[in-house]
Amino acid sequence: MTSGPTADFPTAAFTRFWVAETVSSFGTYVTLLALQTVVVLTLDGTAQDVGWLNSARWLPYLVLGLVVGALVDRRRRRPLLVGTDLASAALLCLIPVAWALDVLSLPLLCGIVAVYGAATLVNGAASMSIVPRLVPRAHLQRAHARIDGADAVAQTAGPALAGLLVKVVGAPLAVLVDAATYLFSALAMSMVAVEEPTAQRTGRPRLREEMRDGVRWVYRGSGLATLAAATHLWFAANAVLGAVLAPYALLTLGLTPLQLGLATAVAGVGGVVGATTSSAGGRRLGTGGAVIAAHAATTVGVVVMALAGVGTSGWVATAVLGLGQGCHGFAIGFGNSHEMTYRQALTPDALQARTNTTMRAANRAVIVVVAPLGGLLAVQIGNRGALAVAAGVFAVVVVWLAASPFRTADAMTAQPPNPPNPTSFPSGSR
Protein backbone atom coordinates (compact mmCIF):
# COMPACT_ATOMS: atom_id res chain seq x y z
CA MET A 1 0.00 0.00 0.00
CA THR A 2 1.25 3.47 -0.76
CA SER A 3 1.85 5.77 2.12
CA GLY A 4 -0.52 8.27 0.61
CA PRO A 5 -0.32 12.03 0.78
CA THR A 6 2.00 13.65 3.28
CA ALA A 7 -0.29 16.54 4.26
CA ASP A 8 -1.84 16.77 7.70
CA PHE A 9 -5.20 15.18 8.36
CA PRO A 10 -7.81 15.93 7.20
CA THR A 11 -6.79 16.90 3.70
CA ALA A 12 -9.08 19.05 1.56
CA ALA A 13 -9.59 16.16 -0.85
CA PHE A 14 -10.58 13.82 1.97
CA THR A 15 -13.01 16.40 3.35
CA ARG A 16 -14.84 16.67 0.02
CA PHE A 17 -14.89 12.89 -0.28
CA TRP A 18 -16.21 12.60 3.26
CA VAL A 19 -19.00 15.11 2.62
CA ALA A 20 -20.09 13.23 -0.50
CA GLU A 21 -20.10 9.90 1.34
CA THR A 22 -21.96 11.34 4.32
CA VAL A 23 -24.79 12.88 2.32
CA SER A 24 -25.21 9.69 0.31
CA SER A 25 -25.30 7.65 3.52
CA PHE A 26 -28.26 9.67 4.81
CA GLY A 27 -30.28 8.79 1.75
CA THR A 28 -29.21 5.16 1.81
CA TYR A 29 -30.54 4.62 5.33
CA VAL A 30 -33.84 6.15 4.28
CA THR A 31 -34.04 3.71 1.39
CA LEU A 32 -33.06 0.63 3.41
CA LEU A 33 -36.01 1.03 5.76
CA ALA A 34 -38.37 2.32 3.08
CA LEU A 35 -37.80 -0.67 0.79
CA GLN A 36 -38.39 -3.17 3.59
CA THR A 37 -41.56 -1.29 4.49
CA VAL A 38 -42.65 -1.46 0.84
CA VAL A 39 -42.28 -5.25 0.94
CA VAL A 40 -44.07 -5.76 4.27
CA LEU A 41 -46.86 -3.18 4.05
CA THR A 42 -47.28 -2.15 0.39
CA LEU A 43 -46.75 -5.60 -1.14
CA ASP A 44 -48.04 -7.58 1.90
CA GLY A 45 -44.78 -9.52 2.09
CA THR A 46 -43.33 -11.81 4.76
CA ALA A 47 -39.93 -12.13 6.41
CA GLN A 48 -38.92 -14.47 3.60
CA ASP A 49 -39.84 -11.80 1.04
CA VAL A 50 -37.65 -9.30 2.89
CA GLY A 51 -34.92 -11.92 2.74
CA TRP A 52 -35.34 -12.17 -1.05
CA LEU A 53 -35.08 -8.38 -1.32
CA ASN A 54 -31.88 -8.34 0.72
CA SER A 55 -30.55 -11.22 -1.35
CA ALA A 56 -31.24 -9.34 -4.59
CA ARG A 57 -29.38 -6.30 -3.30
CA TRP A 58 -26.22 -8.28 -2.70
CA LEU A 59 -26.48 -10.73 -5.62
CA PRO A 60 -24.14 -8.62 -7.84
CA TYR A 61 -21.39 -9.05 -5.25
CA LEU A 62 -21.63 -12.80 -5.71
CA VAL A 63 -21.78 -12.70 -9.52
CA LEU A 64 -19.54 -9.72 -10.32
CA GLY A 65 -17.50 -9.03 -7.20
CA LEU A 66 -14.15 -10.47 -8.30
CA VAL A 67 -14.46 -9.05 -11.81
CA VAL A 68 -15.25 -5.57 -10.52
CA GLY A 69 -12.28 -5.64 -8.16
CA ALA A 70 -9.87 -6.40 -10.99
CA LEU A 71 -11.42 -3.77 -13.26
CA VAL A 72 -11.40 -1.06 -10.60
CA ASP A 73 -7.70 -1.71 -9.93
CA ARG A 74 -7.09 -0.91 -13.63
CA ARG A 75 -8.92 2.42 -13.60
CA ARG A 76 -9.03 5.78 -11.92
CA ARG A 77 -11.45 5.63 -9.01
CA ARG A 78 -12.96 9.12 -8.99
CA PRO A 79 -14.75 8.84 -12.39
CA LEU A 80 -16.18 5.51 -11.26
CA LEU A 81 -17.54 7.10 -8.10
CA VAL A 82 -19.24 9.90 -10.02
CA GLY A 83 -20.70 7.61 -12.66
CA THR A 84 -22.12 5.07 -10.23
CA ASP A 85 -23.68 7.82 -8.10
CA LEU A 86 -25.57 9.05 -11.16
CA ALA A 87 -26.62 5.52 -12.10
CA SER A 88 -27.91 4.83 -8.57
CA ALA A 89 -30.01 8.00 -8.61
CA ALA A 90 -31.63 6.99 -11.89
CA LEU A 91 -32.38 3.45 -10.71
CA LEU A 92 -34.01 4.56 -7.47
CA CYS A 93 -36.33 6.87 -9.39
CA LEU A 94 -37.79 3.80 -11.13
CA ILE A 95 -39.37 2.55 -7.88
CA PRO A 96 -41.87 5.39 -7.31
CA VAL A 97 -42.56 5.47 -11.06
CA ALA A 98 -43.48 1.76 -11.02
CA TRP A 99 -45.62 2.31 -7.93
CA ALA A 100 -47.43 5.26 -9.54
CA LEU A 101 -48.14 3.13 -12.61
CA ASP A 102 -49.45 0.32 -10.35
CA VAL A 103 -46.94 -2.19 -11.72
CA LEU A 104 -44.69 -2.46 -8.67
CA SER A 105 -44.25 -6.09 -7.58
CA LEU A 106 -41.72 -8.05 -5.56
CA PRO A 107 -39.94 -9.48 -8.67
CA LEU A 108 -39.71 -6.02 -10.26
CA LEU A 109 -38.51 -4.46 -7.01
CA CYS A 110 -35.88 -7.17 -6.60
CA GLY A 111 -34.75 -6.64 -10.20
CA ILE A 112 -34.28 -2.89 -9.70
CA VAL A 113 -32.52 -3.47 -6.40
CA ALA A 114 -30.18 -6.02 -8.02
CA VAL A 115 -29.05 -3.53 -10.68
CA TYR A 116 -28.75 -0.87 -7.98
CA GLY A 117 -26.59 -3.33 -6.07
CA ALA A 118 -24.27 -3.64 -9.08
CA ALA A 119 -23.80 0.14 -9.10
CA THR A 120 -23.08 0.21 -5.38
CA LEU A 121 -20.63 -2.68 -5.82
CA VAL A 122 -18.49 -0.62 -8.20
CA ASN A 123 -18.92 2.48 -6.05
CA GLY A 124 -17.91 0.67 -2.88
CA ALA A 125 -14.82 -0.86 -4.45
CA ALA A 126 -13.66 2.51 -5.75
CA SER A 127 -14.60 4.30 -2.53
CA MET A 128 -12.64 2.07 -0.17
CA SER A 129 -9.68 1.89 -2.53
CA ILE A 130 -9.32 5.65 -2.90
CA VAL A 131 -9.06 6.43 0.83
CA PRO A 132 -5.35 5.47 1.16
CA ARG A 133 -4.63 8.01 -1.60
CA LEU A 134 -6.45 10.80 0.24
CA VAL A 135 -4.80 10.60 3.68
CA PRO A 136 -1.37 9.72 5.09
CA ARG A 137 -0.99 6.15 6.33
CA ALA A 138 -0.53 7.36 9.92
CA HIS A 139 -4.04 8.86 9.80
CA LEU A 140 -5.77 6.00 8.02
CA GLN A 141 -7.58 4.72 11.11
CA ARG A 142 -8.75 8.26 11.96
CA ALA A 143 -10.03 8.66 8.41
CA HIS A 144 -12.05 5.45 8.60
CA ALA A 145 -13.30 6.41 12.07
CA ARG A 146 -14.49 9.75 10.70
CA ILE A 147 -16.26 8.02 7.81
CA ASP A 148 -17.85 5.56 10.24
CA GLY A 149 -18.87 8.37 12.59
CA ALA A 150 -20.62 10.26 9.81
CA ASP A 151 -22.25 7.04 8.66
CA ALA A 152 -23.46 6.47 12.21
CA VAL A 153 -25.01 9.94 12.33
CA ALA A 154 -26.75 9.14 9.06
CA GLN A 155 -27.88 5.85 10.55
CA THR A 156 -29.34 7.80 13.47
CA ALA A 157 -31.29 10.31 11.42
CA GLY A 158 -31.96 8.23 8.31
CA PRO A 159 -34.35 5.60 9.71
CA ALA A 160 -36.26 8.17 11.76
CA LEU A 161 -36.57 10.35 8.67
CA ALA A 162 -37.61 7.28 6.69
CA GLY A 163 -40.32 6.45 9.21
CA LEU A 164 -41.63 10.00 9.00
CA LEU A 165 -41.49 10.08 5.20
CA VAL A 166 -43.23 6.71 4.94
CA LYS A 167 -45.99 8.03 7.18
CA VAL A 168 -46.39 11.28 5.22
CA VAL A 169 -45.79 10.33 1.56
CA GLY A 170 -45.62 6.53 1.58
CA ALA A 171 -42.67 4.16 1.31
CA PRO A 172 -42.30 4.17 -2.51
CA LEU A 173 -41.90 7.96 -2.68
CA ALA A 174 -39.49 8.04 0.27
CA VAL A 175 -36.70 6.57 -1.87
CA LEU A 176 -36.60 9.79 -3.91
CA VAL A 177 -34.68 11.31 -1.01
CA ASP A 178 -31.87 8.84 -1.63
CA ALA A 179 -31.90 9.63 -5.35
CA ALA A 180 -31.35 13.31 -4.53
CA THR A 181 -28.45 12.51 -2.20
CA TYR A 182 -26.75 10.47 -4.92
CA LEU A 183 -26.94 13.47 -7.25
CA PHE A 184 -25.32 15.66 -4.61
CA SER A 185 -22.65 13.02 -3.99
CA ALA A 186 -21.82 12.88 -7.69
CA LEU A 187 -21.33 16.65 -7.76
CA ALA A 188 -19.18 16.70 -4.62
CA MET A 189 -17.11 13.71 -5.73
CA SER A 190 -16.36 15.38 -9.06
CA MET A 191 -14.53 18.11 -7.11
CA VAL A 192 -12.24 15.73 -5.18
CA ALA A 193 -8.61 16.30 -6.20
CA VAL A 194 -6.65 13.04 -6.06
CA GLU A 195 -3.48 11.82 -7.73
CA GLU A 196 -4.13 8.57 -9.59
CA PRO A 197 -1.04 7.82 -11.69
CA THR A 198 -1.10 5.78 -14.84
CA ALA A 199 0.28 2.26 -14.51
CA GLN A 200 3.92 2.03 -15.58
CA ARG A 201 3.69 -1.35 -17.28
CA THR A 202 4.15 -2.67 -20.78
CA GLY A 203 1.78 -5.58 -20.38
CA ARG A 204 -1.18 -6.64 -18.30
CA PRO A 205 -2.22 -10.15 -17.30
CA ARG A 206 -5.58 -11.54 -18.22
CA LEU A 207 -8.57 -10.54 -16.12
CA ARG A 208 -8.97 -14.07 -14.78
CA GLU A 209 -5.39 -14.04 -13.49
CA GLU A 210 -5.94 -10.72 -11.76
CA MET A 211 -9.07 -12.07 -10.09
CA ARG A 212 -7.14 -15.11 -8.86
CA ASP A 213 -4.41 -12.82 -7.53
CA GLY A 214 -6.97 -11.01 -5.38
CA VAL A 215 -8.39 -14.24 -3.98
CA ARG A 216 -4.92 -15.66 -3.26
CA TRP A 217 -3.90 -12.45 -1.55
CA VAL A 218 -6.84 -12.48 0.85
CA TYR A 219 -6.84 -16.16 1.73
CA ARG A 220 -3.19 -17.20 1.34
CA GLY A 221 -0.66 -14.41 0.92
CA SER A 222 -1.53 -11.54 3.23
CA GLY A 223 -2.32 -12.85 6.72
CA LEU A 224 -5.96 -11.80 6.36
CA ALA A 225 -7.45 -15.30 6.14
CA THR A 226 -8.56 -15.61 9.78
CA LEU A 227 -10.18 -12.19 9.82
CA ALA A 228 -11.79 -12.84 6.44
CA ALA A 229 -13.35 -16.13 7.54
CA ALA A 230 -14.65 -14.62 10.79
CA THR A 231 -16.09 -11.70 8.85
CA HIS A 232 -17.94 -14.06 6.52
CA LEU A 233 -19.51 -15.77 9.54
CA TRP A 234 -20.46 -12.37 10.99
CA PHE A 235 -22.25 -11.54 7.75
CA ALA A 236 -24.18 -14.81 7.94
CA ALA A 237 -25.53 -13.86 11.35
CA ASN A 238 -26.22 -10.31 10.23
CA ALA A 239 -28.11 -11.60 7.17
CA VAL A 240 -30.51 -13.41 9.49
CA LEU A 241 -30.87 -10.24 11.56
CA GLY A 242 -31.50 -8.13 8.46
CA ALA A 243 -34.18 -10.47 7.13
CA VAL A 244 -35.99 -10.71 10.45
CA LEU A 245 -35.79 -7.21 11.96
CA ALA A 246 -38.58 -5.46 10.03
CA PRO A 247 -41.11 -8.33 10.27
CA TYR A 248 -40.15 -8.82 13.92
CA ALA A 249 -40.81 -5.17 14.73
CA LEU A 250 -43.87 -4.61 12.53
CA LEU A 251 -45.61 -7.98 12.92
CA THR A 252 -44.36 -9.70 16.10
CA LEU A 253 -44.04 -6.56 18.24
CA GLY A 254 -46.80 -4.63 16.46
CA LEU A 255 -44.73 -1.47 16.09
CA THR A 256 -45.49 1.24 13.55
CA PRO A 257 -43.01 2.21 10.80
CA LEU A 258 -42.23 5.37 12.79
CA GLN A 259 -41.44 3.33 15.92
CA LEU A 260 -39.27 0.97 13.89
CA GLY A 261 -37.48 3.96 12.39
CA LEU A 262 -36.83 5.46 15.82
CA ALA A 263 -35.57 2.16 17.22
CA THR A 264 -33.28 1.68 14.24
CA ALA A 265 -32.04 5.25 14.60
CA VAL A 266 -30.60 4.37 18.01
CA ALA A 267 -28.12 2.16 16.16
CA GLY A 268 -26.76 5.35 14.66
CA VAL A 269 -26.35 6.91 18.09
CA GLY A 270 -24.42 3.84 19.17
CA GLY A 271 -22.39 4.07 16.00
CA VAL A 272 -21.43 7.67 16.74
CA VAL A 273 -20.28 6.69 20.23
CA GLY A 274 -18.41 3.70 18.84
CA ALA A 275 -16.66 5.67 16.12
CA THR A 276 -15.79 8.49 18.54
CA THR A 277 -14.18 6.10 21.01
CA SER A 278 -12.61 3.75 18.47
CA SER A 279 -9.20 5.42 18.33
CA ALA A 280 -8.81 5.47 22.11
CA GLY A 281 -10.14 1.92 22.33
CA GLY A 282 -7.64 0.77 19.73
CA ARG A 283 -4.75 2.30 21.66
CA ARG A 284 -5.88 0.50 24.80
CA LEU A 285 -6.94 -2.86 23.37
CA GLY A 286 -4.92 -3.06 20.16
CA THR A 287 -6.43 -3.73 16.75
CA GLY A 288 -7.31 -7.35 17.46
CA GLY A 289 -8.71 -6.65 20.91
CA ALA A 290 -10.84 -3.77 19.63
CA VAL A 291 -12.37 -5.90 16.88
CA ILE A 292 -13.12 -8.76 19.29
CA ALA A 293 -14.70 -6.37 21.81
CA ALA A 294 -16.87 -4.95 19.04
CA HIS A 295 -18.16 -8.39 18.08
CA ALA A 296 -18.95 -9.12 21.73
CA ALA A 297 -21.05 -5.95 21.85
CA THR A 298 -22.91 -7.11 18.74
CA THR A 299 -23.81 -10.38 20.45
CA VAL A 300 -25.18 -8.56 23.49
CA GLY A 301 -27.18 -6.22 21.27
CA VAL A 302 -28.94 -9.00 19.37
CA VAL A 303 -29.83 -10.78 22.63
CA VAL A 304 -31.43 -7.55 23.86
CA MET A 305 -33.39 -7.20 20.60
CA ALA A 306 -34.74 -10.72 21.04
CA LEU A 307 -36.00 -9.74 24.50
CA ALA A 308 -38.02 -6.77 23.20
CA GLY A 309 -41.72 -7.39 23.64
CA VAL A 310 -41.26 -9.98 26.41
CA GLY A 311 -43.84 -8.68 28.87
CA THR A 312 -43.88 -5.29 27.12
CA SER A 313 -45.43 -3.65 24.09
CA GLY A 314 -45.66 -0.37 22.23
CA TRP A 315 -43.13 2.26 23.20
CA VAL A 316 -41.49 0.09 25.86
CA ALA A 317 -40.80 -2.58 23.26
CA THR A 318 -39.54 0.18 20.97
CA ALA A 319 -37.11 1.31 23.67
CA VAL A 320 -35.79 -2.22 24.29
CA LEU A 321 -35.41 -2.83 20.57
CA GLY A 322 -33.63 0.51 20.30
CA LEU A 323 -31.25 -0.44 23.10
CA GLY A 324 -30.28 -3.59 21.24
CA GLN A 325 -29.86 -1.60 18.05
CA GLY A 326 -27.67 0.84 19.94
CA CYS A 327 -25.33 -1.95 21.04
CA HIS A 328 -25.19 -3.27 17.49
CA GLY A 329 -24.45 0.18 16.11
CA PHE A 330 -21.77 0.82 18.73
CA ALA A 331 -20.06 -2.41 17.74
CA ILE A 332 -19.93 -1.47 14.07
CA GLY A 333 -18.72 2.06 14.77
CA PHE A 334 -16.08 0.85 17.21
CA GLY A 335 -14.69 -2.08 15.25
CA ASN A 336 -15.08 -1.30 11.56
CA SER A 337 -12.32 1.30 11.28
CA HIS A 338 -9.85 -1.09 12.90
CA GLU A 339 -10.75 -3.91 10.51
CA MET A 340 -10.45 -1.63 7.49
CA THR A 341 -7.16 -0.10 8.67
CA TYR A 342 -5.64 -3.52 9.34
CA ARG A 343 -6.78 -4.81 5.95
CA GLN A 344 -5.40 -1.79 4.09
CA ALA A 345 -2.16 -1.78 6.08
CA LEU A 346 -1.46 -5.32 4.88
CA THR A 347 -2.41 -4.63 1.26
CA PRO A 348 -0.36 -2.89 -1.49
CA ASP A 349 -2.13 -0.09 -3.34
CA ALA A 350 -2.22 -2.15 -6.54
CA LEU A 351 -4.32 -4.80 -4.75
CA GLN A 352 -6.62 -2.54 -2.72
CA ALA A 353 -9.71 -2.87 -4.94
CA ARG A 354 -9.26 -6.61 -5.46
CA THR A 355 -8.79 -7.20 -1.74
CA ASN A 356 -11.87 -5.13 -0.92
CA THR A 357 -14.07 -6.73 -3.55
CA THR A 358 -12.86 -10.26 -2.80
CA MET A 359 -13.88 -9.79 0.83
CA ARG A 360 -17.08 -8.01 -0.09
CA ALA A 361 -17.99 -10.56 -2.76
CA ALA A 362 -17.64 -13.38 -0.25
CA ASN A 363 -19.51 -11.43 2.43
CA ARG A 364 -22.37 -10.56 0.11
CA ALA A 365 -22.44 -14.09 -1.27
CA VAL A 366 -23.12 -15.16 2.29
CA ILE A 367 -26.00 -12.68 2.44
CA VAL A 368 -27.42 -13.89 -0.88
CA VAL A 369 -27.53 -17.44 0.45
CA VAL A 370 -28.38 -16.83 4.10
CA ALA A 371 -30.90 -13.97 3.89
CA PRO A 372 -33.67 -16.08 2.31
CA LEU A 373 -32.78 -18.94 4.64
CA GLY A 374 -33.00 -16.54 7.57
CA GLY A 375 -36.46 -15.52 6.46
CA LEU A 376 -37.45 -19.17 6.06
CA LEU A 377 -36.02 -19.90 9.51
CA ALA A 378 -38.18 -17.12 10.95
CA VAL A 379 -41.25 -18.60 9.28
CA GLN A 380 -40.46 -22.00 10.83
CA ILE A 381 -39.39 -21.06 14.38
CA GLY A 382 -40.62 -17.50 14.71
CA ASN A 383 -38.91 -14.15 14.38
CA ARG A 384 -37.68 -14.18 17.98
CA GLY A 385 -36.20 -17.64 17.59
CA ALA A 386 -34.35 -16.56 14.45
CA LEU A 387 -32.86 -13.64 16.39
CA ALA A 388 -31.63 -16.08 19.02
CA VAL A 389 -29.91 -18.14 16.32
CA ALA A 390 -28.24 -14.98 14.99
CA ALA A 391 -26.98 -14.11 18.47
CA GLY A 392 -25.45 -17.57 18.80
CA VAL A 393 -23.55 -17.21 15.53
CA PHE A 394 -22.26 -13.77 16.55
CA ALA A 395 -20.96 -15.37 19.75
CA VAL A 396 -19.07 -17.98 17.72
CA VAL A 397 -17.26 -15.15 15.90
CA VAL A 398 -16.09 -13.72 19.23
CA VAL A 399 -14.73 -17.06 20.42
CA TRP A 400 -13.09 -17.77 17.05
CA LEU A 401 -11.13 -14.53 16.93
CA ALA A 402 -10.25 -14.58 20.63
CA ALA A 403 -8.73 -18.05 20.22
CA SER A 404 -6.69 -17.06 17.14
CA PRO A 405 -3.43 -15.10 16.71
CA PHE A 406 -5.54 -12.19 15.43
CA ARG A 407 -6.21 -11.18 19.03
CA THR A 408 -2.72 -9.60 19.12
CA ALA A 409 -2.96 -7.93 15.68
CA ASP A 410 -1.71 -4.34 15.42
CA ALA A 411 -2.47 -2.25 12.33
CA MET A 412 0.18 0.36 13.14
CA THR A 413 3.04 -2.14 12.90
CA ALA A 414 1.56 -4.40 10.21
CA GLN A 415 3.43 -4.46 6.90
CA PRO A 416 2.24 -5.98 3.60
CA PRO A 417 4.10 -9.16 2.64
CA ASN A 418 5.70 -9.23 -0.79
CA PRO A 419 3.10 -10.06 -3.46
CA PRO A 420 3.59 -13.62 -4.75
CA ASN A 421 3.75 -12.38 -8.36
CA PRO A 422 4.48 -8.65 -8.52
CA THR A 423 4.22 -8.51 -12.32
CA SER A 424 0.52 -9.27 -12.13
CA PHE A 425 -0.24 -6.31 -9.88
CA PRO A 426 -0.57 -3.04 -11.82
CA SER A 427 0.71 -0.12 -9.77
CA GLY A 428 -1.69 2.52 -10.96
CA SER A 429 -4.87 3.30 -12.84
CA ARG A 430 -5.74 4.45 -16.27
Automatic annotation (TrEMBL):
<feature type="transmembrane region" description="Helical">
    <location>
        <begin position="385"/>
        <end position="403"/>
    </location>
</feature>
<feature type="transmembrane region" description="Helical">
    <location>
        <begin position="285"/>
        <end position="308"/>
    </location>
</feature>
<keyword id="KW-0812">Transmembrane</keyword>
<feature type="transmembrane region" description="Helical">
    <location>
        <begin position="106"/>
        <end position="131"/>
    </location>
</feature>
<keyword id="KW-1133">Transmembrane helix</keyword>
<feature type="transmembrane region" description="Helical">
    <location>
        <begin position="248"/>
        <end position="273"/>
    </location>
</feature>
<dbReference type="Pfam" id="PF07690">
    <property type="entry name" value="MFS_1"/>
</dbReference>
<protein>
    <submittedName>
        <fullName>MFS transporter</fullName>
    </submittedName>
</protein>
<dbReference type="InterPro" id="IPR036259">
    <property type="entry name" value="MFS_trans_sf"/>
</dbReference>
<dbReference type="GO" id="GO:0022857">
    <property type="term" value="F:transmembrane transporter activity"/>
</dbReference>
<feature type="transmembrane region" description="Helical">
    <location>
        <begin position="217"/>
        <end position="236"/>
    </location>
</feature>
<dbReference type="GO" id="GO:0005886">
    <property type="term" value="C:plasma membrane"/>
</dbReference>
<keyword id="KW-0472">Membrane</keyword>
<feature type="transmembrane region" description="Helical">
    <location>
        <begin position="55"/>
        <end position="72"/>
    </location>
</feature>
<dbReference type="InterPro" id="IPR011701">
    <property type="entry name" value="MFS"/>
</dbReference>
<feature type="transmembrane region" description="Helical">
    <location>
        <begin position="314"/>
        <end position="334"/>
    </location>
</feature>
<feature type="transmembrane region" description="Helical">
    <location>
        <begin position="79"/>
        <end position="100"/>
    </location>
</feature>
<feature type="region of interest" description="Disordered">
    <location>
        <begin position="410"/>
        <end position="430"/>
    </location>
</feature>
<keyword id="KW-1003">Cell membrane</keyword>
<feature type="transmembrane region" description="Helical">
    <location>
        <begin position="361"/>
        <end position="379"/>
    </location>
</feature>
